[in-house]
Design goal:
With about 450 residues, the protein is α+β, with helices and mostly antiparallel strands. The protein has helices at about 30-35, 55-65, 70-85, 90-105, 110-125, 130-145, 150-170, 180-205, 210-225, 230-240, 245-255, 265-285, 290-300, 310-330, 330-345, 350-355, and strands at about 360, 370-380, 385-390, 400, 420-430, 435-445. It has two domains: about 20-300, Tetratricopeptide repeat domain (Serine Threonine Protein Phosphatase 5, Tetratricopeptide repeat, Alpha Horseshoe), CATH 1.25.40.10; about 330-445, OB fold (Dihydrolipoamide Acetyltransferase, E2P). Mean pLDDT is about 90; it is low at about 5-45.
Length: about 450
Amino acid sequence: MESRFLRPSKMIIATGTLALFATTGTVPALFAQAAQQPAAGQAGAAAPQKNYKDRAEYDLFAKITQTQDPKARLELLNQWQDKYPQTEFTQERNIYLRETLAQLAATDASVRQKLLDKCKELLAADAKDFRSAYLIAVWGPAVGGTSPAADLQTQVQSAAQTVIDTAPTAFDPSKKPATVDQAAFDKAKTQAVAIAHNALAWVATSKNDKATAENEYKASLEANPDQGNISAVYAKMLVDDKKVPEGLFEYARAGQYTGPGPSLPEATRKQLLDYFNNAYKNFHGSMEGADQILAQSKTQALPPSGLNVTSAAAQEQAKADEINKRIAADPAFKIWYAVKQNLTGDQGEQFFSSNVKGVEVPGGAEGVKGFNGTVISVEPADRPTKVVLGVEDATKGDATLTFSQPLPASALEKVKVGEKLDFSGVVDSYTKDPYMLTFGDPTIPGVQTTAPARKGRRK
């Protein structure tokens, strides 16, 4: 089954950074306080915790704190680095650079590598720097693309794991800003963890480790179900790994999901739903059960345990196994099925003319005196001359018994719908599709018919 949507090697970039950490508001208060310090030597000045080299440096970072436009702020930060490569505010400057580059990264691909470098520098100073690790997990895959360098893979893997490990501390209730709703704070945590798992899936895919990538995408959706884009990537991986029922569920999810988290464009969702419908029918053999999967996938991101959609091939195999088992146990059915296979084959007409027409069947072949079927219909009801039975399937007619004279009332005590009947007789005709073998004035043991049973040739 071909699956052609959203190849796993194509990184799905987060649609936005976490709202709680998306602005320069994360710069330590110490830096903001330093920007308000009076000029060096000014009377009454309190001894600062950190000192700037001169008034010009103070004026420069004071201007930085007041500049809202990230491009303009980046120019000022670059000036600060050029003019004051050595400063007591290196850490604060790096944080301001990180946040400014993070603001620009969404629309300016040229700054993303610089952002990664700055985050790496900050992590060297603090290995548990959640924000820097998070930004590497977000933008590392975007920088690396489908053929990332080994060192970038290592960097992203380490950062993503740091996000997962430090998320409980970073989102400890004591860290929640008073102005932030608890639900939003908790949601930010799940989003961050999900993005970290997506980054780990990207690393695994880059290494052609499909099993790990699958597990990471699943973990991502467990952490944050609101990711229609990730459901699409996960769906393809599952189908490619022959986990078709689960993959179809994820395609249904991605094709219907519209938010609140990342979703796919309407045209893409329609393509995914069309693919789901076609693939489901091809795999299962019908659309039976598809509506249940569509309904479930609207409300949950992962397939339920025990999801069972049997393939058409598996159904056919099960049917074949059952028939073979029945053939081995029932000599009469063995003959019946052999006749059917020959009559429905390419040489059916020739076989009928030379081996079946006008012949008594089963005629004692292999010691079998008669067939057995379930009565499906008796027509007409008052004076019946036709009885339809199901031999292979009790609900589907494949044998018709015709009588030149209506059956007597005494016969109708046994010849009625739902009853099992033994029969044998001379074959008059057949149809290939739907399959039906017609007997004229057959013998029904234990049932007296009005017309005598016909005798035919024996084969």
